[in-house]
Amino acid sequence: MASSKANDFPRNWLDREVKIEQNDDDLFESSGSEPSTSLATGLRDGLSSETTPTPQDNGSSPPNEQEEVTFVPGSSQRTRVTDKLGRGVYMHGGYTYRRERTMKKLPGFITCRCIFRECAARARVNEDNCKGFVVRQHNHEPDFTKQTIRQARDALEAQARAVGNGIAATDAVRVIRSTLGDDVFPKANSEEAYLRAFERARKRARQEEGNEVREEAALEPIVSEANFGQGSGSMASSDENNLLENWLDREVKIEQNDDDLFESSGSEPSTSLATALKDVLSSETVPTPQDNGPLDEQEEVTFVPGSSKRTRVTDKLGRGVYMYGGYTYRRERTMKKLPGFITCRCIFRECAARARVNEDNCKGFVVKQHNHEPDFNDQSIRQARDALEAQARAVGNGLGATDAVRVIRSTLGDDVLSAASSEKAYLRAFQRGRKRARQEVNNEVREEAVFSSSEPIVSEEFREVDFGQGPERFLLTEINKDDSKMAVFMSTFGKTLLERSRNISICEASTSSPHLFVISAYLDNLSLPAAYCIYSKKSPDVYRTALDAVNAELACNKKPLSIIADLERNVTNAASMVWPLATIGLSTYRLGTEVFSKIQSNADLLWRYNTNEEDRALMDSLQYLAFVPLTDLYHTFCTLWDSTDEMEDLFTWFFTSYIGRYFVPKQPFVDLQPGWISDSIIRDQILSKHRADPSFSPREWNLYGREKQLINNSMKQGFSRSMTSDSTIFLDIIRSEEVFSRELFNENCLAKPCYVEKDLWSVVEQYDEKSEDPVQYLKELASIYPRALDLGEINGVFKQTRKKTAEQQLHKYRKSKGCIP
Questions:
Q1: Which of 269, 375, 540, 678 is 20 to 30 A from residue 460's alpha carbon, by CA?
Q2: Position 445 in a domain
Q3: Distance, CA of 149 to chain centre
Q4: pLDDT of residue 23
Q5: Is residue 216 part of a domain?
């Protein structure tokens, strides 16, 4: 164990280990209750070489501030169980100092502070020779026994790592404890505690040795150049956005016979299409128990790549999972020690199986075994769905959808076909894939037309626009770079809205390319678009630049006081930097859409959501935890969970993403108390596995106490559905939305959203009375404020108000105070 590396133990422990290892043959000859002679001699010689601190040797009072002293290094409780044994604290004069930070002005020195928080004593120590100075005095008495006990624990840890077995554990513990003085012995731990520490250290040493052996074994077949050169080429190509090579081959075969593909439109598929697809699908090796049986952990195998549900509908088709032996592994993370490799885990959460896969040639190793039976039908079904998606993207029209689906299903065996989806489900998937392909093409054309040219992205007609009162500046700022382009629009009308409202919302209006987000002002029960930003690439600088441009136009005393943003960390960070005095919250509507997206990803939950009214109300209630006080949030969440049946995945995801462990009280719930079952599940199963902080803390999205501001009501956004439609001219949409915002302001007669808001207030104000049954309280909120009420329906309410006569509108306009023409 002795070496000159920084991670090795201190020199005094290394000397002690050398003395012990010289008598390794005699260490374990005696296994009785008395320690062996050689072990006692070795350990006592090592420990006696250390000077036991005493008041006479160390001085009962600290040395002068400028007097150089020698510190004794030791381990803290954390560093003792790591490779930093013997480091972490420095001791002198009965005081112990913990490492704080490296000093910039004194190279090689570190500052240390006393381990007692109430003490302001500091020390400066040279890490090379452990010499330094005490620069502040202590406010407590020294403890001369701690140094001896700390050194004994370090010696025990070092001895446990050096000894290969535990036969001499009792002997080593007794020898170390016999070196403690009479004044130190009563304050030390018992012999049983030392034995447990010895066994734990020995177990850690074995684990470290096993990890090194496993890593060396895994590296051996990787180092040879032949393994890298003999890849099967089953992954797509060097371009990350291309499809798999086998799917591309399939498309080429089909396109060669395009003239014959759709000649037959009857119930039977055409001959050319059947031949093309059958040839490609037959080239795939169907997994069988004989061919794919589990292998030894260190045997190199070839994995078959495939798509997960999420990657299949993106440009990452054919990637996301790796299959072998009837088991499917999901990508987890990139390995730092093995470049080019990734770690994958079994798709079943209860299974601890892992695999290491080379992304270039899809070869790797299974490093842990499964605890469930293999499913040999999953690979065939997954490949068929990927082939269907690739074919749907390649075909320009939907005339051959039925033929393609029937050919793909005909390649599946009877046992696989019984587990696969129906023909109608495959047809729907085909049509969705074809629609996605058209949208991608349109997005590429739009982005190329708007952003690829070197000319300014905003033409002259949009820089100054006439909204009925003469031309006025509409373009606020513009950035035209090769890698990033953006433009911010705001009229005088939008500036006045923001200054009058002081309550704004920032929301994403288009997730396609080019991107668009809107800054809306909440005024007179209306959420009116005031500023717009169109940009090519998402980055933190985009939001900061746009908000800075808007902020520069506002008066100093008219800055926003309250901001509601989407569930986007870049937006909240930029808003907090531009308007540090504003209160920033998150949109409850966006929280509801995230919950519904999670429901859609689970087929069982989605079926229950669509067929069971009670289950739908319980699922919709999750987003209305925003209207529960933070002090009651955890109890209400557990009570809501207890009232559900088989929704562990949904509630576990919500807890880890939006609540977190900091809101779990120290004391568990009493048995039979509402929510006690979910509380026990969280403490026993979730907290032990998920130690990371939530994506968004409840303090960010909780709105109890500020529900009357309700700029969070993103369903009342003024922009219409054309913002998210597949339009080809974004600038025309922005100009039309500005006109639409002015019309809404002038009409100012939105009855339904106003009533919805008042009903919501009335329920929240009665929380103290309804807190005894929190589940019913959440259901009542969900019934008033349903998730299904989206932007399109609210826009329909807006359009209905325009049916009023011109005289009524004029009367309403004159009656309102402070209207902006």
A1: 540
A2: no
A3: 43
A4: 40
A5: no
Which two tokens mark 490?
């705001």
CA nearest to 663, candidates 645, 687, 685, 642? 687
- Give residue 725's identity as a one-letter amino acid code: S
Cα–Cα dist 463/292, whole Å: 65
Is residue 200 domain-shared with residue 92, that is, in the same domain? yes
Range of the domain at 304: 245-437
Kindly tell me if the per-residue pLDDT of 782 is higher than 60. Answer: yes
User: Reduced to 3 states, what is the DSSP secondary structure of residue 572?
Assistant: helix
Return d(Cα 109, Cα 117) in angstroms, integer: 22
Q: Is residue 6 part of a domain?
A: no
Separation CA 390–CA 397 (nearest Å):
13
pLDDT over threshold 80, residue 693: yes
pLDDT digits (tens, 9 = 90+) for 238-247: 333 333 334 3
Tell how far CA 69 is from the center of its chain.
49
| Residues 378, 258 within the same domain | yes
Question: CB of 735 within 8 A of CB of 742?
Answer: no
Residues 642 and 772 in one domain: yes
| pLDDT tens column, 511-544 | 554 677 888 887 666 677 888 888 877 777 888 8
Beta strands of 435-558 (E only): which ranges? 464-466, 471-473, 475-480, 485-490, 503-510, 515-523, 526-535
Within this chain, do residues 51 and 72 fall inside the same structural domain, yes or no? yes
**Total count of domains within the chain:** 4
Which has the higher per-residue pLDDT, 194 or 804? Answer: 194
Beta strands in 392-440 (DSSP E): none
Q: Which residues have a Cβ under 8 Å from the Cβ of 335 and sit 6 or more positions away?
A: 341, 342, 343, 356
Copy the structure tokens of residue 412.
């599946």
Residue 793 CA to residue 799 CA, distance in Å, equals 10
Q: Cα(288)–Cα(304) distance, rounded to whole angstroms?
A: 14
Q: Identify the sign of the CA torsion 47, 48, 50, 55.
A: positive
The DSSP annotation for 323-346 comes to: EETTEEEEEEEE-SSSTTEEEEEE
Beta carbons of 250 and 387 less than 8 angstroms apart: yes
59 sits in the region (left: phi over 0; alpha: psi -120 to 50; else beta) called left
Between 383 and 636, the higher pLDDT residue: 636
Do 483 and 420 lie in a common domain?
Answer: no
Q: For 44, phi and psi rounded to 5 degrees? A: -65, -40
**Residues 758 and 614 reside in one and the same domain:** yes
437-444 contact pairs (CB < 8 A, 24+): 437/392, 437/393, 439/512, 439/726, 440/315, 442/726, 442/728, 443/512, 443/513, 444/513
The CATH code of the domain that includes 728 is 3.30.420
Task: Tell which wins on pLDDT, 690 or 654.
Answer: 654
Residue 39 in any domain: the answer is yes
Report the pLDDT value the prediction gives residue 456, as an integer from 0 to 100. Answer: 59
Report, in this order, helix, strand and coil percent for the chain, each rounded to 5.
50, 15, 40
Q: What is the pLDDT of residues 19-44, one digit of tens each?
A: 333 343 343 333 344 444 444 444 44
pLDDT of residue 468: 67
For residue 254, what pLDDT band results from cuts at 50, 70 and 90?
very low
Residues 6 or more apart whose CB falls under 8 angstroms from that of 151 comprise 47, 50, 72, 74
Neighbours of 737 (CB within 10 A): 21
Residues 759 and 739 in one domain: no
Answer with the residue of higher pLDDT: 544 or 165: 544
CA–CA gap between residue 8 and residue 86 (Å, rounded): 8
pTM: 0.43
Q: Say if residue 532 is in the same domain as residue 414.
A: no
For position 303, what pLDDT does the model report? 92
Average pLDDT, the chain: 69
Tens digits of per-residue pLDDT, 733-779?
A: 566 666 666 665 555 544 444 445 566 667 887 888 888 888 888 88
